[in-house]
Amino acid sequence: MDAPPILGTLESALYTDDLEAAEAFYAGTLGLAVVTRQPGRHVFFRTGASILLVFDPAATARPPSPGARMPVPAHGGRGPGHFCFSVAAETLDAWRAHLEAAGVAIEADFRWPNGARSIYLRDPAGNSVEFAEPALWA
Question: With a threshold of 0.90, does the pTM exceed it?
Answer without folding.
Answer: yes
